[in-house]
Amino acid sequence: MEKDKKPINHVAIIMDGNGRWAKKRGLPRHKGHEEGCKRIIEIFEAVKENHIKVMTLYAFSTENWNRPKLEIKQLFTYLDKFFKDNIDKFMEDGIRVQVMGDISRLPEKTQKVVKEALFRTKDNDNYVFNIALNYGSRQEIVKATKEIATLVKNNELAVNDIDETTISNHLYTANLPPIDLMIRTSGEQRLSNYLLYQLAYSEFIFTPTYWPDFKKENFEECLKEFRKRDRRYGKIEQ
Ligand code: IPE
Ligand code: IPE
Ligand code: MG
Asked: Which residues surround ligand 3, an ion (CB under 5 A)?
């Protein structure tokens, strides 16, 4: 298959740099989150144009609770607005909303808005908008381990039958295709507890652009770069 025709099924993004974007402009950090929320739907438009089925976004990590209470509150207010403003569009375009993480710790209002989005979009199957909220990959692996251990304890699964698929099936991403490309904005080159198991063979792109400055054309550039990559999966050219 020609390289530029290589299908991309799943892109995961770490939307980082909102705070620094705001600081650079002499604005409070929450203004960066406000502007960042506006980029989400623009980038998702580009995802659809490129026939990418799934976009997974890191919006709030288990470690982000260590931030000031006010910043957390403001961030969730913007996310509430994002869901409210876009739910009709999700319905029109056949987009299913999915969530990764323990949402029971989120503000009541956010839980309500998110649950409504999950419920309303549950039968859509053109695209998946998968958002990580109070997500931590280590927490996800602990959760999967407990579920698998319980199956073994109840004699529903033999230890020898545990394989890579068993683990994958107990992660939040169980029903999703493998992640082809992981993009992190803002220049940081780390995973910050994101999808440790799922990214084993994904391509990584770290771009210095802050998330609120990350436009469609920046995303297209990332896809172009991805298409140049040679994914060998341990094999050699013959
Ligand atoms: C990403 O931007 C959004 C969240 C982590 C919630 P940051 O808020 O981390 O912005 P920087 O990295 O401090 O610039
Ligand atoms: C990762 O970004 C989490 C999200 C983008 C939601 P952080 O800004 O929290 O990560 P660190 O602290 O720089 O590793
Ligand atoms: Mg950050």
From this structure: 16
